[in-house]
C-alpha cells in the first residue's frame, strides 16, 4: 500500500521532471511555496483539495484502479474523488458503516466524504482507496 511519503515523492518527481519550479507551482496553484515544500517532503499531512490544486498546477492527475473490480477513475479534483468513492463503495456493495469497518475508519469519515462536509487528509484518502481494494497511480496529462 502506498503511503503519504510515496505519493508525495511521485508528485514531486512529476513536478521536477516537468521542469516546474516550486515558485511556478505555487503561482499556478494558489498555494504557498512553503505548502508545496511540505507536500514535497511529506513532513505534514495535507488535504486532498491542496493535493489536487498542486497536481493541476503541474499538469497531473490521479488514476484510481482495481484489478479485482476491473474499473478505474480519473481524479482531477476533490469532487471527482467524492463521486468515485461512492461508486467504489457501491461496487463493493457496502453500506457506509460496513465501508468504514472494512477501511478501518470512523463511519463519520465516510459520511463526511460523501456529503462533502469534511476536507479529507491525504492520509485518509489513501486509507480509503486501498481499503476498498483500489490503487493510486500518478499520471501526467497529455
What's a concise summary of this model?
With 142 residues, this protein is α+β, with helices and mostly antiparallel strands.
What do these coordinates show?
The chain has about 140 residues and is of the alpha+beta class. The chain is about 60% helix and about 15% strand. It has eight helices and three strands. It has helices at about 5-15, 20-30, 35-40, 50-55, 80-90, 95-105, 105-115, 120-130; strands spanning about 60-65, 70-75, 135-140. A three-stranded antiparallel sheet has the order 2-1-3. A hairpin with a 4-residue loop joins strand 1 and strand 2. Helix 2 (about 20-30) crosses helix 4 (about 50-55). The longest helix has 14 residues, at about 5-15. The relative contact order is 0.18.
List key phrases describing it:
142 residues, alpha+beta, 3 strands, 13% strand
Percent helix:
55-70%
Strand fraction band?
5-15%
Biggest sheet overview: 3 strands, antiparallel
The DSSP helix count reads 8
Q: SSE order, as H and E?
A: HHHHEEHHHHE
Mean pLDDT: 95
How many β-strand runs?
3
- Widest beta sheet: strand line-up: 2-1-3
Question: What class, by secondary structure content?
Answer: alpha+beta
Gross morphology: globular
Low-confidence stretches: none
- Rg over C-alpha atoms, rounded to the nearest angstrom: 15 Å
CA(first)-CA(last) distance: 27 Å
Amino acid at each position: 500500500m502506498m503511503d503519504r511519503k510515496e505519493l508525495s515523492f511521485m508528485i514531486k518527481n512529476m513536478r521536477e521532471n516537468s521542469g516546474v519550479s516550486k515558485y511556478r507551482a505555487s503561482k499556478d496553484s494558489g498555494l504557498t511555496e512553503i505548502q508545496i515544500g511540505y507536500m514535497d517532503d511529506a513532513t505534514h499531512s495535507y488535504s486532498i483539495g491542496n493535493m489536487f490544486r498542486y497536481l493541476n498546477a503541474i499538469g497531473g492527475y490521479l488514476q484510481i484502479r482495481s484489478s479485482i473490480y476491473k474499473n478505474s477513475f480519473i481524479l482531477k479534483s476533490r469532487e471527482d474523488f467524492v463521486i468515485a468513492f461512492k461508486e467504489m463503495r457501491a461496487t463493493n456493495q457496502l453500506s457506509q458503516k460496513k465501508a468504514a469497518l472494512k477501511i478501518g475508519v470512523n463511519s463519520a469519515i465516510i459520511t463526511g466524504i460523501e456529503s462533502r462536509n469534511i476536507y479529507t487528509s491525504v492520509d485518509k484518502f489513501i486509507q480509503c482507496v486501498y481499503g476498498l481494494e483500489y490503487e493510486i497511480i500518478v499520471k501526467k496529462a497529455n
